[in-house]
Amino acid sequence: MSQIVEPAATRRAFVVGGIGLAASLALPRTAQSAQSPADINLAASPGRWPLVGEQNLETNVWNYNGRIPGPEIRVRQGEPVRIVVENKLDEETTVHWHGIRLSNAMDGVPGLTQPPIKPGETFTYEFTPPDAGTFWYHPHADSLRQLGRGLAGALIVEEASPVAVDRDILWMLSDWRLDSEGQIFGGFGNAMEAAMSGRVGNTVTINGALSNEVAVRAGERIRLRLANCALARIMALRFDGHKPWVVAIDGQPCEPHQPGSGRILLGPAMRVDLIIDMRGEPGRRYHVTDDFYDGLAYWLTQLAYDDKPSVRAHPLDAPVSLPRNPLTEPDLTSAEHHVLTLQGGMMGGGGMMGMGGMHGMSHRASWAINGKSMTGDGHAGMPPLLTLQLGRTYVLTLRNETAWWHPMHLHGYSFQVLTRNGSPVPHRQWADTILIPPKQSADIAFVANNPGDWMLHCHVTDHQVSGMMTVLRVA
Known about the structure:
Elements: E1 40-49, E2 59-64, E3 73-76, E4 81-87, E5 96-98, E6 122-127, E7 133-138, H1 143-148, E8 153-158, E9 167-176, H2 191-194, E10 203-206, E11 214-216, E12 221-228, E13 235-239, E14 245-249, E15 252-257, E16 264-266, E17 271-277, E18 285-290, E19 298-305, E20 336-344, E21 367-369, E22 374-375, E23 386-388, E24 393-400, E25 406-410, E26 415-420, E27 423-424, E28 430-431, E29 433-436, E30 441-447, E31 452-458, H3 461-465, E32 466-467, E33 469-474
Parallel strand pairs: 1-4, 3-8, 9-12, 11-19, 20-24, 23-33
Antiparallel strand pairs: 1-2, 4-6, 5-7, 7-8, 9-10, 12-17, 13-16, 13-18, 14-15, 14-17, 18-19, 20-21, 22-32, 24-30, 25-29, 25-31, 26-27, 26-28, 26-30, 31-33
């Protein structure tokens, strides 16, 4: 059964009464890209942003380059990227390039892979993305507050050849806890929430705004990139009257398929690329509904068809597969196998030992992996749970013994999803974040070909900072 702490959900997931917005959902792309030698510049700073859209009402946020979400950075597969991050906050920060297979020194974990960026200082990230796909960036320092107050953006790595669609659209899905004045509630790191489902909000935005509708036209084909940037909210999206094709998961192409449940399931940090053929009736509206939490369904937005006739006389054929990225196939015949058991939480049955957290941090240990807790956001000297041999294939069984859902994210790698509860997973799925339901398990496989100390953690951020985090060393 799905469970949630916050009981707030109505027609739309927001608390501010009487506020509406017909939001534009096409994010402006950054004018700087890896196509030129110029640096891409990002500045993290406090600011204000009209999340709920009411005139003269802006929310105090933290943002990149003065906007929520941060700039949509589009770069090319296989071309070098140089991004200069300036810290205009009054606390340390870093940037983690979520899902990018890059060198360990560029991974953005404070203390573990780089010194944190102090207020007033800059840090330059340089990497060459090997994979095309939908990725994103966010802090890995004071993660609860910095991500929860708005620091997130999309990093899109474009394929060498354009995908045959009419439009390529990004939805950055964010979850906020707002008061009646449209301001962000404090209280980050509540111990009871941390031991349950984490900080789930009451306001869901698309690209930094509430959305009443998205304009579409009959007959067009859209590539819709979904990215869940929430601290804790899990989403299950239904596209009423439409049948989306899943063509990529966490940036990695899969065999195109339509989910049997009709729902697109997105845990925090997960991304899914869809191909949607707009076969609705001109002039009609169709809800996009999130119904993950029992009894708390709401509609996120509407697909609003204009009155014009279809752009095509005949529907297009099923979408072709996206070109595969250069991932090394695991050799399962020689793989070494390890079991990682997720433990703790309220109603979780205990199982935690040796709560070795981060010195000086106030986060209470509520979760563990194999009986050990690491709290906080990362620091120097974190001991590895496992040391993996460079170049060898590994199969990890992630076994969830808790009463809660956990989106488990591995830095620096994409892994092949082999099985769930012992049953093979279809469609050749690769991911960097896998959502594991309560009392269930999954087997994942990868070749340990990227050396360094790599974080593995739950991306329900409360769970991460209160213990469900560890390090895998590849040497």
